[in-house]
Amino acid sequence: MKKSISIYLAGTIKKGKDEEHELCWTDEHKTILKECCKAKELELVFLDPQDRSDDLSDQLSVFGRDMFQLFSSDLVLVDARGRRGLGVGAEMMFAKTQRIPLISWLPTDSYYQRKDIHFLGQKVQSWIHPFVYTLSDYLAPTLEHVASWIENELLGASCAIKGPETMQQAMSYYLETQLQFDHGMRELIFTNQKLTKKLELIQS
C-alpha cells in the first residue's frame, strides 16, 4: 500500500504578466518529485496555493485557505531559488510553530546562498540567509535531493524536526556568543529596564 505525503508548495505566485519571468512551482517540478519517489511507492499530494477557484477578493478567506493547507501538510517545501516575499517567510515561521518538516530548495550560489557577500559593512563567506538557514530542516540544492531526504529522513523513525523552541534557542545562542561583541545592542539592553527584563526572561 502506498504511503501518502501531503506537500505544501511555498513560493512566488504570479500576479500578472509583469511577473512571467519569476521562478514559480510548475507541473514539471511536481512530476520530477513524483518520479524520484516512485521507487519507494510514495504518493505525493501537492497542496499548491496557485491551484484554486475561491474568491481572491476575500483577503481573510485567502489567508485562511493558505494556513489550512499549511496546517494540513506533512511537509512544507519552499522554493528558495530566487527572491521571495512576505508570505513565504510567514509560512516558514508558521510551519515551525506547528513542528511541520520544512525543506528549502536552495541551489548553490543563488539569491539566498552566496559564496561571499558584503553585508552591513562586513564580508561574509559561505553566507546563507539566516531565516532560511535556521527555519529549514534541510537545505536541498536540487529536487532530487528533496526526494532523497523525504525517503531517507522524513520517513525515518529518528528524524528530528525543528519546532517553536528554535526561536528561543537562537536567541539564547546570540546572547551567549555575540552580545558581548554587539556593542550598540549591549548598551541598549543594559540602559533600558524593559529590555533587561527580556534578557533575563530568555536566560532564565
Query: DSSP helix count?
Result: 8
Number of strands: 7
Order of helices and strands, N to C? EHEHEHEEEHEHHHH
Shape call: globular
Q: Class by helix and strand content?
A: alpha/beta
The amount of beta strand, in percent, is: 15-25%
The whole-number mean of residue pLDDT values reads: 93
Strand arrangement within the widest β-sheet reads 2-1-3-4-7
Question: Number of folding domains?
Answer: 2
Explain what the structure shows.
The protein is an alpha/beta fold. The chain has two domains: 3-161, Rossmann fold; 166-203, no CATH class. The protein is 43% helix and 20% strand. The protein contains eight helices and seven strands, in the order βαβαβαβββαβαααα. It has helices spanning 27-36, 59-72, 86-97, 130-135, 143-154, 165-177, 183-191, 193-203, and strands at residues 3-10, 42-47, 75-79, 102-105, 113-119, 122-128, 138-140. The strands form two sheets. It has a five-stranded parallel beta sheet, sandwiched between helices. Strand 5 (113-119) and strand 6 (122-128) form a beta hairpin. Helix 1 (27-36) crosses helix 5 and helix 7 (183-191) crosses helix 8. The chain is globular and about 60 Å long. It starts with a strand and ends with a helix. The mean pLDDT is 93.
Task: Describe the secondary-structure layout.
Layout: E1 3-10, H1 27-36, E2 42-47, H2 59-72, E3 75-79, H3 86-97, E4 102-105, E5 113-119, E6 122-128, H4 130-135, E7 138-140, H5 143-154, H6 165-177, H7 183-191, H8 193-203
Parallel strand pairs: 1-2, 1-3, 3-4, 4-7
Antiparallel strand pairs: 5-6
